[in-house]
Design goal:
Length: 364
């Protein structure tokens, strides 16, 4: 096919007399080889750069730092990956559902560029912040990350985990991870300190509504107050509804109902929608909002929380749902639920909602 002026031939195949690839001939001509194809760098356009081992990068890429070859795999809708319990997992595990920092780093690599600003308004023990730091050494470059967390203990765990991890990295001869900006307080207040359009990627794991845990907490509270008398109301640190990370089947760990914050699922959806409406002001026009959310199965019914949350956010905030990714952890232990009377799913996945700021054409 002839070039049309806007397209450029990126490679040509060297063949031998039998039609097979001639690697020796390619080496003699000192041209790079990728997957059996020789990259003819003389044929690249001005906006294209060959990166050894990675492929061809297009400088018009405004989404991330990936080459076309890397982009192809990054657009897969399923992330079938079990991540090792590293980066001080034992310490961070006190949270009960941290996101793997390397999973966060992978998503940061898909939806931001080196030097960009990443915000996690429900930061927990800092999985997103650690992921942003990992990008300096295992990705295309450091991102500056901001985290909001209202539970002091989780903030302390992030700080301690970073110190311990860097001590071990120095002992191994590895460069340390950069410290990120973890801010203690309520996200609804802290977001006021973030300038509009200053965040390139908002990556977070939302706090969950879980009616079963609400009822259990109420019963425990009534029992405690009956036995010991009434005490003052819970503080923000004691009644955390905004913890960060969660693994693929830990929806219940983040129930915001510990302090009666959400009486119903509708209350939870309204609160999340209002928060994301405010968060969206901080996101740059070409940025992304990426949200972890697991579905639930309760009372013999599947709660499609991811779909309901996506609809609530789109209805309230100037954001458009661009994609839904699935993080499937093949290493998760399976359990026998419902056997032999009823099929009950064993949750080994989480949904990852990908939003982009809405423009005028989205409203038509």
């Amino acid at each position: 096919m002839a070039d049309d002026g806007d397209r450029h031939r990126q490679s040509r195949l060297f063949t031998d007399d039998d039609g097979g690839f001639d690697a020796e001939r390619a080496r003699e001509e000192s041209l790079p080889v990728e997957d059996g194809e020789v990259i003819d760098t003389d044929e690249l356009a001005d906006h294209q750069t060959y990166l050894e081992g990675r492929g061809i990068y297009d400088e018009r890429n405004r989404v991330n730092d990936l080459t076309g070859k890397e982009w192809k795999y990054a657009t897969k809708s399923v992330i079938p990956e079990g991540y090792p319990p590293d980066l001080q997992h034992d310490l961070r595990g006190e949270h009960g559902g941290q996101k793997p920092p390397r999973l966060c780093a992978e998503l940061i690599g898909r939806f931001s560029k080196a030097g960009d600003t990443v915000l996690d308004p429900f930061a927990g023990v800092g999985g997103t912040l650690l992921g942003a730091s990992l990008c300096e050494h295992e990705g295309t470059g450091l991102r500056e990350a901001i985290g909001f967390e209202r539970t002091r203990r989780w903030v302390e765990i992030y700080e301690t985990a970073l110190v311990r991890e860097n001590e071990e990295r120095r002992e191994r001869g590895d460069p340390p991870l950069a410290e990120q900006d973890m801010r203690h307080g309520d996200c609804a207040e802290l977001i006021e300190g973030v300038p509009d359009d200053s965040v390139d990627l908002l990556l977070t794991d939302v706090p969950y509504w879980h009616m079963d845990e609400l009822e259990q907490t109420r019963n425990e509270r009534r029992t405690r107050e009956s036995s010991l008398g009434s005490f003052g109301g819970p503080t923000a640190d004691d009644a955390n509804g905004e913890s960060g990370d969660g693994d693929a089947d830990s929806a219940s760990h983040k129930a915001g109902a510990a302090d009666g914050e959400w009486e119903t699922k509708a209350d939870w959806l309204d609160d999340m929608a209002a928060k994301f409406d405010r968060f969206a002001d901080a996101v740059a026009p070409e940025g992304h909002v990426v949200v972890f959310i697991g579905d639930m199965y309760r009372d013999q019914s599947y709660e499609f929380l991811s779909a309901e949350l996506a609809q609530a956010i789109e209805a309230a905030a100037p954001l458009t749902l661009a994609a839904t990714l699935i993080w499937y952890d093949p290493t998760k232990d399976l359990h026998v639920y419902g056997y032999p009377f009823s099929f009950v799913p064993s949750m080994v996945h989480q949904n990852v909602l990908v939003f982009r700021p809405a423009d005028d054409s989205d409203a038509t």
